[in-house]
Amino acid sequence: MPCQPECRGDGWLGVSGAAGRLSPRALGLWLGALPAGRFNNLTDVPGVTVGHVSLIRGQGPLVPGQGPVRTGVTAVVPHAGNMYRRPCRAAVYVFNGFGKSIGVPYIRETGLINAPILLTNTLSVNDVANGVIDYLLRQNGKIGNDARTPDIVVFECDDSYLNDIRGRHVKPWDAILALERAAAGPVAQGNAGAGVGMSCFQLKGGIGSASRLIPGKTGARFVLGMLVLANFGLQEDLLVNGVPVGRLLPAEASGSHVPGSLISVGVTDAPLSSRQLEKLAARTALGQARTGSLSRTGSGDFALLVSTAPLTECGSVSDWALDGYYQAIVEATAESIWNAIFLAETMVGRDGHLRKALPVGETLAIIRSWAGGLN
Length: 375
Known about the structure:
By secondary structure, the protein is an alpha+beta fold. The protein has one domain (7-368): L-amino peptidase D-ALA esterase/amidase (4-Layer Sandwich), CATH 3.60.70.12. It is built from 7 helices and 15 strands. The chain has helices at 104-110, 125-139, 172-181, 245-248, 274-290, 323-343, 360-368; strands spanning 7-9, 49-57, 69-77, 88-97, 112-113, 117-121, 153-157, 199-200, 203-204, 206-215, 221-230, 262-268, 300-307, 347-348, 354-355. Strand 14 (347-348) and strand 15 (354-355) form a beta hairpin. Helix 2 (125-139) packs across helix 3 and helix 5 packs across helix 6 (323-343).
């Protein structure tokens, strides 16, 4: 059922969605050869937490500054310690540079990240950044006095088709609340947090997440988890399991607005160097392509990869051992995007703009008609 107006909260949908929607894995689709982690999401990486604040208010014609509001903020915290005092190795790869993000140059220069990662809509980046600054100043009394300032990291997608984006309804305290809500366990997906107002393949998109287990050189398994903010593509582009589902489904897309941008955030406990993390980040584009994306003009496609291993250990993995990580990043990115659209619910936004949920029954019927579509 469509998401109802006049609600504000954490956007909890769980792995099956508030209306009983199921992930493609739960529906029996083949999503890759590597095993997934316990929850099949970003928090399978030890210490990683995710929090959402979802803002859903009003309905009807757009009144700039008042609504309707269909937006939110999502926080990713790579480890349970103090990020400023205990930074992590990190890398950013920009596949298509139409994004308006904060924090990319510092990560590229230093190979480090020393703040949580926040996702929101395009025009709320600065408000979210202000919230993160307040949060970090409370934790670290020496910032700006006896210590250097942190690098604030905020990524964005444009939710203006459904949301009163000019109203800038995400406030600094929403970013702080998302950080305070960050928790381990199942991650809310679809219409959650920053994903509330997002579209994907001109259907309803949003937050998606997945994970993969990777054998280590001593037999131990490392974990790689992904979380995406999916807001890109035309319906005709959509592929599921290699099947051109978007072209075979009835045309559900309404309006001429073409969504743009994919933000991919990956975390692993493997001791990878920042250079190796950048190589992984580049492979997210291959996972995006598995879902049918062409990274069309106007799409801001950014990938951030983080290693939570101790800094002194990072770089101990041979480049010749990276193929398993490449497989993991491609599989987890693609599954995260599919999770975002399979778990999202139909949303009515400003001016009656509509993004319909993926019609799962019709999608499965199309895939079944193609040999090898299901296990």
